[in-house]
Structure of Phosphotransferase:
Amino acid sequence: WRRWGRAVGVLREFEEGCATPIGRLRQVVDAMVVEMHAGLASDGGSKLKMLLTFVDRLPDGKEEGIYYAIDLGGANVRVLRVQLGGKRSMILGHEGESNPVPRNLLTNSTVELFDLVAMTLKHFVEKDENGHKLVVEKTKELGFTFSFPVKQKSVSSGVLIKWTKGLFIEDTVGRDVTQCLEEALARRGLNMRVTVLVNDTVGALALGHYYDKDTVAAVIIGAGTNACYVERTDAIIKCQGLLTNSGGMVINMEWGNFWSSHLPRTPYDIALDDESQNRNEQGFEKLISGMYLGDVARRVLYKMALESDVFGDAIGGLSTPFALSTPMMAAMHEDESPDLREVARILEETMQVLVPLKTRKLVVRVCDIVTRRAARLAAAGIVGILKKMGRDGSGGAPTGRTKSKTRRSVVAVEGGLYAGYTLFREYLNEAIREILGEQVSRNVVLRITEDGSGQRLNRDSCRQSQTV
Ligand code: ADP
């Protein structure tokens, strides 16, 4: 081995740069709380937008009737019809469809995008569960899950602040997305009205609360990341005089944009940010979410390939941005075969490099460092929310009949990264225990809600809970 030491040096340096000892996690927790306060105090007061949702009541399982929902949150548009039966956990039936948004529509024009959404809905609504044609006479009410930052004006309307997650259609920014959808529905002759506009995080919170009334926050960890929670209206300083029936309101944090100098950031993260379409934005998301983790790992491997000969002479796809997806990285990380066969296969198939076992082990280490940091930072974020709500066991809780120490707090978690990546989930849960301590963390439950906004809504989702 020539220059093996250099590859190890790259690894060591990266590992140090990504370190998340408990002290640093606590700093991130506190920074999150500070930024939450700042974002609630004034618009623009923090990188955390802390958006009002006007949602002041969450479903409690008593709902009845047939509901339609449409979900636009990235590269797919999904429609859903659910029948709720009125007793908790009685979702009588649901069905849905999911269609990819063609790549050119992700950047073309508002009209084209919303026409596609309207057509998807029309096809779905105008046939019943058995595929028979339905005549839609009455105006139907529609829930619209739109998972991009929106400045809401009411529970059913709001203007797009900016696109994220690969959608960039300039002329939508600043427009009311409910109006865009309703106009498209009208163009397509569909008699439907948007009665609620939420993002996926709020959808996950609603679904979580439907099953368990102790659900106080929701976090999405998929391609992107975001969180929301229930805040007391009197703590939402930026809209003084705001009153809600419940005294609370769901706040959409848009936490993907969180930033703090305490976040561990390496040259690889800086390069990824520099080359991204949204430089200096979504900083927390770039450290945590599925859209980026694979690429952070790839950048480190590329550096190793340049500095040493551990990948032989071939660079292959290592220099290609996003050649390594996060699910691929996860599969390498979780390869349990003694000769790391899966690692070899993935490196060969996706990156055209053939590497010996010793190098494969290095690759697994890189995946581990990337994922561990991501999971631990997400955990610190979650504890930050709990702390802001006085549910982290540290005392100083807002007034309440039950002591904060004994209150059970459920956090609904949704997204492919958390649900599909076991080691990520384990690191996250472990870090929450580490920060909160055994006793307090016993009252914190992270529960996977399978797709509160989309089609996998089902009764099993309430069984997959896990106490951290
Ligand atoms: P979205 O965030 O677009 O709504 P999902 O919540 O389904 O979609 O998350 C999809 C993302 O989660 C993918 O982009 C991928 O990065 C990540 N992901 C999905 N499955 C896995 C897995 N098994 N291991 C690691 N990451 C995964």
Q: What stands out?
A: The two ends are 43 Å apart (CA to CA). Confidence is low (pLDDT under 50) at residues 452-468. Residues 357-388 form the longest helix (32 residues).
